[in-house]
Amino acid sequence: MMRRRILCWHRCARSIEGVAEGVATGTGQRHHGWRYRANVALRILTGTIGAYLVAALAAAMLARTLPMSRAEATVTATMIAYLVAPGVTIWAFLARGPWRALAGVVMAALVLGGGVWLAGARA
């Protein structure tokens, strides 16, 4: 049992050394092309700007449609929007592709924007 642990530790230490050497010399790093970088960049933009847009539209729609006083509806809608924004960001990184993530966020923004437009201004 002891010999097995020593061998396992030796293998683990050797693999860690290899990783450290690769990072230090730059040989162990994977080189990603422009497609991979564009994929990540589009997901980051979708996850940040798209999340802000969808959360703002969700807050606006809920503030106009919740059956409460104006101040209570605004506070409640804002708190719910704080839950929507991370969901949109997570969706941006879980979608199969960056264009599918962008399409999902745009569709959500269009639906919520339509809801805001249909709800109109509160009296």
Overview of the structural elements:
It comes from Sphingobium cyanobacteriorum. The chain crosses the membrane at residues 40-63, 75-94, 101-120. This is Ketohydroxyglutarate aldolase. Keywords: Membrane, Transmembrane, Transmembrane helix. The protein is mostly helical and 123 residues long. Helix 2 runs antiparallel to helix 3 (70-94). It has 4 helices and no strands. Helix content is 84%, strand content 0%. Residues 19-23 have low confidence and may be disordered. The chain is elongated, with a radius of gyration of 24 Å. The chain has 2 domains: 1-31; 33-119. The relative contact order is 0.12.
Q: In this structure, how is the largest beta sheet organized?
A: none
Would you report the number of β strands? 0
Please give the radius of gyration in angstroms: 24 Å
Strand content is under 5%
* Count of helix runs: 4
Q: Which structural class do you get from the secondary structure elements?
A: mainly alpha
Number of domains: 2
User: Which residues form runs of ≥5 with pLDDT under 50?
Assistant: 19-23
Overall pLDDT: 83
Fraction in helix: over 70%
Q: Specify the overall morphology.
A: elongated
Distance between the termini: 77 Å
The helix/strand order is HHHH
